[in-house]
Design brief:
Layout: E1 3-7, E2 10-12, E3 18-25, E4 33-39, E5 46-51, E6 57-59, E7 68-73, E8 78-83, E9 92-99, E10 111-112, E11 116-120
Parallel strand pairs: 2-11
Antiparallel strand pairs: 1-3, 3-8, 4-5, 4-9, 5-6, 7-8, 9-10, 9-11
């Protein structure tokens, strides 16, 4: 059964860090572009970062530049989102998703996880 499962979310204070993981089953992530997306309460889903199968990345959100990084461990079939210097506005449900390429101008992906909640609060 094809699945993407996110983990690593939780409650963190402003300025803190979290590392989210996206683990795949039934899908070999190294052949896909993997994106991280987030949805804050009452807002539309937005793209955060996407890593291509070649290893290069695309940043969709200026607000995370210099704070978030995306990486992949093909041996573990896992993609990570390292989030540092977290802010209140980073609160939301974070989703990973897979597609053949990182999307441009849209967020249509082929496979989605169910998300993990990140809450940044003091």
């Amino acid at each position: 059964q094809l699945q993407l499962v996110e983990s690593g979310g939780g409650l963190v204070q402003p300025g803190g860090s979290l590392r989210l993981s996206c683990v795949a089953s039934g899908l070999t992530l190294q052949y896909y572009a993997i994106g991280w997306f987030r949805q804050a309460p009452g807002k539309e889903r937005e793209g955060v970062l996407c890593i291509r199968s070649s290893g290069g990345s695309t940043n969709y959100a200026d607000s995370v530049k210099g704070r978030f990084t995306i990486s992949r461990d093909n041996a573990k079939n896992t993609v990570y989102l390292q989030m540092n210097s977290l802010k209140h506005e980073d609160t939301g449900v974070y989703y990973c998703a897979a597609a053949r390429v990182c999307p441009e101008g849209h967020y249509d992906m082929d496979y989605w996880g169910k998300g993990t909640l990140v809450t940044v609060s003091s």
